[in-house]
Amino acid sequence: MNIEQVKEYIESEGLNGRSREQFYVFRRHYLCWALYRSQELTLGEVGKLLNRDHSTVFHSIRKHEELKTDRLYQKMTESLRTTNGRAFDVYETKTEYL
Predict the structure, then answer these.
(1) What is the dihedral angle through the alpha carbons of 29, 30, 32, 37, rounded to the nearest 10 degrees?
(2) How far apart are alpha carbons 52 and 65 in whole angstroms?
(3) What are the C-alpha distances in Å from 51 to residues 17, 44, 54, 66, 72?
(4) Cβ proximity of 43 and 36 under 8 Å
(5) How would you label 26-38 residue by residue, b for 16+ Cβ within 10 Å and e otherwise?
(6) Dihedral, CA atoms, 72, 23, 52, 61, nearest 10 degrees?
(7) What is the pLDDT of residue 88?
(8) Which residues touch 29 (CB under 8 Å, ≥6 apart)?
(9) By CB distance 3.0 to 4.6 Å, which of 23, 29, 31, 50 could disulfide with 60?
(10) How far is 24 from 17, CA to CA, in rounded Å?
(11) Confidence band (pLDDT; 50, 70, 90) for 83?
(12) How far is the C-alpha of 12 from the C-alpha of 16, rounded, in Å?
């Protein structure tokens, strides 16, 4: 997935919203971690994609590390890990998209 596809996905799934439902929160945690690691984006760049502050992205990455072995967390984030066979696993050069 390229950055434009990621942005479309985030918007279509409502992951840039303010919902505090566990389903969305867990998916945002995973997404912050995946984008920061695989896209090599800064915390601020990930935050802009999700309408969040860089410190919120940092917190989400830490929460992902805490929860990654939790079965409920794994179940709720499974679709993100398997989207297109390799969700958010793109190593392309950063572009001016923000």
Answers:
(1) 140
(2) 19
(3) 8, 10, 10, 23, 25
(4) yes
(5) bbbbbbbbbbbee
(6) 10
(7) 53
(8) 60, 61, 63, 64, 67, 73, 77
(9) 29
(10) 9
(11) low
(12) 9
Which pLDDT value is given to residue 80? 81
- AA identity, residue 33: W
In the predicted model, what is the mean pLDDT of residues 50-68?
Answer: 96
**Which is more confident, 41 or 80?**
41
* pLDDT value of residue 48: 95
**Cβ(50)–Cβ(60) under 8 Å?**
no
Distance CA 8, CA 70 (A): 28
**Is the sign of the CA dihedral 58, 63, 69, 72 positive or negative?**
negative
Q: What residue type is 19 in one-letter code?
A: S
Lowest mean pLDDT among 15-19, 29-33, 78-82, 86-90: 86-90
